[in-house]
Design a protein that fits this description.
about 130 residues; seven-stranded mixed sheet; single chain
């Protein structure tokens, strides 16, 4: 059974940092792009950041650029999202997702391009 399990969410104050982790099991994702999405109440799920299978290419949504960093450890089948200088508008449920393309040079950033999803972890930033 393929599983993506997120952890590291919580309640923090504006300006604080959090590090989210996404551990995969049941299947290796070392050759596939991975991404973090988030969904705030009443809003569409949106991409936050994406990373290529090798870690060599990354994408960030404009509002998180220079504050968030996506990385992966393929030996651990795990992807991370380091979030610094958090703002109240970052409050959302954060989801980890995996695409199934094999060692592609294309980095997908749309929700429909991702096949496997975690259950999400809540991040709440108070002002």
């Amino acid at each position: 059974q393929v599983q993506l399990v997120e952890s590291g969410g919580g309640l923090v104050q504006a300006g604080d940092s959090l590090r989210l982790s996404c551990a995969a099991s049941g299947r290796s994702f070392t050759n596939n792009p991975m991404a973090w999405f988030r969904q705030a109440p009443g809003k569409e799920r949106e991409v936050v950041a994406a990373v290529s299978w090798s870690g060599g290419s990354t994408y960030y949504q404009g509002s998180v650029k220079d504050r968030f960093t996506i990385s992966r450890d393929n030996a651990k089948n795990t992807v991370y999202l380091q979030m610094n200088s958090l703002k109240p508008e970052d409050t959302a449920v954060y989801y980890c997702a995996s695409n199934t393309s094999f060692r592609s040079s294309y980095l997908p950033i749309h929700r429909s391009e991702y096949t496997y999803w975690g259950q999400g972890t809540q991040v709440t930033v108070s002002s």
